[in-house]
Design a protein that fits this description.
This protein is an alpha+beta fold and about 140 residues long. Helix content is about 20%, strand content about 40%. Strands 2-3-4-1-5-8-7-6 form an 8-stranded mixed sheet, covered by helices on one side.
């Protein structure tokens, strides 16, 4: 199923934010993965940071991370749209369209977490994270 899902980068305070939202929104955190959990090598100072988290409440659902960018102030959250696709062809079409006069941050490629994934910032400055399961839909 194709789906749009916000992705919030909390720049170093993701765990604190998730705890806050659990209380404020009556939700739960389904997934938390740190950079240390990854088979990819990252700098030692970010290994305990949240690489990926999923928050779900009755009214709100979003993905979250601490991100990699040390140049931004802690807690200066920003939002990206995460779209899940069921067909790689459609994912590629959308990625190419969003890339027109935009900037590819991470080209579409297969990942260690089992999806084809890419990140692009469109011409209006909106960041899009597109994923598709490896199995064609």
């Amino acid at each position: 199923m194709n789906m749009l899902q916000p992705h919030i980068t909390f720049h170093g305070v993701c765990r604190d934010a998730l705890l806050f939202y659990q209380t404020a929104l009556g939700g739960k955190v389904n997934t938390v993965t740190t950079f240390n959990d990854s088979p990819v090598e990252f700098p030692s100072h970010i290994l305990d940071r949240v690489m990926h988290a999923e928050f779900v409440s009755p009214e709100v659902r979003f993905l979250a991370s601490d991100g990699l960018d040390d140049s931004l102030a802690q807690g200066s959250g920003d939002v990206a749209f995460h779209v899940s696709f069921s067909e790689e062809r459609r994912q590629s079409e959308v990625f190419m369209a969003l890339s027109d006069r935009g900037q590819v941050i991470m080209p579409l490629d297969y990942t260690f977490w089992g999806v084809k994934f890419g990140i692009v910032t469109d011409q209006f400055g909106i960041r899009w994270m597109l994923s598709c399961s490896e199995q064609e839909g």
